Every structure is written in structure tokens, then in C-alpha cells.
Amino acid sequence: MAWNNQSVVTEFILRGLSSSWELQIFYFLFFSIVYASTVLGNLLIVLTIMSEPRLRSPMYFLLGNLSFIDMSLASFATPKMIADFLSEYKAISFEGCITQIFFLHLLGGAEIVLLISMSFDRYVAICKPLRYLTIMNRRMCVGLVTLSWIVGIFHALSQLAFTVNLPFCGPNEVDSFFCDLPLVIKLACVDTYILGVFMISTSGMIALVCFILLVISYTIILVTVRQHSSGGSSKALSTCSAHFTVVTLFFGPCIFIYVWPFTNFPKDKVLSVFYTIFTPLLNPVIYTLRNKDVKDSMRKLSSRIFKSRKTDHTP
Known about the structure:
This protein is mainly alpha-helical and 315 residues long. The protein has eleven helices and three strands. 73% of the residues lie in helices and 3% in strands. α1 packs parallel to α10 and α1 crosses α11 (292-312).
């Protein structure tokens, strides 16, 4: 895909979260801690699932891939945002802006499919327990993860198919800390109404429909769980409630931003921060707090790492 060189604008100015120098110093420290916690938390989940034999089930395989996507989602724009807090000139090249849009929709599309896959996994585990391992075999799990990345790639390319050729010849200030499609297309020198409608149909409505389907799916699962009163059902309820919490945190801001792309809401910037920075941080917290197996495995892994380091430093 060739980028149109006829655009006069060669870079965009990111207005960031605040123009106050004091707030920017605070944001630099705060988001540095949040970003480090996000990467370390999700990385710990990935390493725990890879190293712990009892976490080799389909659910944890999908969870490990979700943590990898969350780690990537937090990394496509946050490091630049943190660096920009210490810079007076917050600029990003046209190519860099397009790259951010691509990875945002790639990772967002992949996560949507993966969350649907995790819902399907829980449905099979609870509603068809005797056939669970037959249906959710390794081939199925690898296929679902592969499908999530394929859908993410095609979704990202569909968003950029028309955007890269838009003429940008005037305003170049993006009212956010990263390039997001609804904000960037408004800066084009042509009427982008049709492109906005396309964006609603491919991003906003797809996110809304997927969220509704996931709500219906988890409702069916929870109704099935409530018909049982065993300890296993209690564990299933805890797992599903954690999954549904993650689904709500991810889809809520996405639907709000992409279903109404023609309207500027003061809270859009807050929502962008939430689903690109805080949601990837909250996911590992939610899963570890609500899942005893993951917590126990993390303690074992941390203990092994600590003992290993202690042995290395022993003369």
C-alpha cells in the first residue's frame, strides 16, 4: 500500500492530555508507573501460563494470548506519550500517525475476536462439559488465535484503505495523545462524511453487535451456572464474571468513541486513555484476583525466580 505523497501535511501535532507543565510532570511519573505495571503484569501472566503445567488448558492458552495483545495495545502509543510529557514539541510524522492507527485497529480487532473465543470456550466448558476437551482441542485453540490476528489485520487494512490517500493540506493538530482515526480524518481537506459512515459500520457497529452477542452468551452461561450449586459451579461463576468484566471495560469506551465519530465529547480523551492504557492494566489484575489457579502459579513462579537469584548470589 503506497502512501499518497500529495498531502501537504507531513506531520501532526499531538495536543496531549494537558498544556500545564506541572500536570505533565505528574502525568509523566504516573503513566510511567502504570505502563511499567501493565507490561510486567501481562508479561508475568504469559510466563506463568507457559511455565506452569496445570495451566495448559484452552482457557489459559487464550488468556495468555489476551495478555500478549494487551501488552502490545499498551505499547503502540503509550511510550511516545510518556516521552512527549517532557517535550515541548509533540509531533508525529504522517507515516508514524498511520502506523499508530494501523496497530490500534489491528490489536483492537484481534482482541475482539479473542474475547469472543474466550466466551465460546466458557460456553463449551459449562454447557457441554463432557465434550469440552474434544471441541476445544489444541487445533481449535490455535485456529481461534490465528483467526483473531487475521481479522485484526484485515480490519486495520480496511480502515487505512481510504485514509492514507486523503489530502491533508491545512490543520494538523490532533486533540489526543495518539493518532486515532475519528480525529485524523476530520483534518482532511475533503468531506469525510462517507468515510465516517464507513467507520461507524466497520468499527462502531461491529463493536456494538459483538458486545451484545457477548452479553447474550454470558447471560446463557450464567443462567446455566445458577442451575448448579457445586463448588465447580462457583468457580465457573467467578471465572465468567471476570471475563465479563474485561469485556465491558474493553467494549464500553470503543463503542462510545466509534459509534458517534462525528461528535466531539469532552470525555473522548479520557476514554482513549482508559481503553489503551488502563484496560490492559486492569485485565491481569482482574484475572489474578478472581482466579486462584493463576494466583497460586504466579506465587510458585515468583518463588522459583527468587530462589534462583538467591542461589546465584550465594558464594
